[in-house]
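User: Teach me something about this protein's shape.
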Amino acid sequence: MVGELLDEIMRAIGTPAFNFKLDGAAANLRDFIGRERYFVFVATGAEAAPAGFITLCESYALYAEGTFGIVPEFYVRPPFRSQAVGRRLMEEAKAFGRTRGWKRLEVTTPPLPQFDRTLAFYEREEFSVAGGRKLKVVL
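Assistant: First, the predicted structure itself:
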């Protein structure tokens, strides 16, 4: 599903922004989960078919007043959208964060019209714009 998410983003922005390889992603996933700082929740639909997922990782910052969670990936397959799958995944993420003592959850979505629906979802889930844009440099 990560590949589906990244393909959908790249189609929306018209830029090949990700270099996703399933084998490498699977190896990274095993490593990340093994470190107990990266967590995955999967929602299932009919017949236990994967409907969506959310990933969380733990971070630390003075501005966040301590430990907090980041949502690096969050995806609901198109046939399952508008069926509360995303809301339930987000509820699980928030509840899990509380058990970890996180002060907040952070998520990034591009400030582009193609992602207005995504932004509206996050706002319904009580996220607020915290300022800035996500930037990266490849090391």
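Now, about its shape. Residues 106 and 127 are 8 Å apart (CA to CA). The two ends are 26 Å apart (CA to CA). If you'd like, I can walk through any region in more detail.
User: That's plenty for now, thanks!
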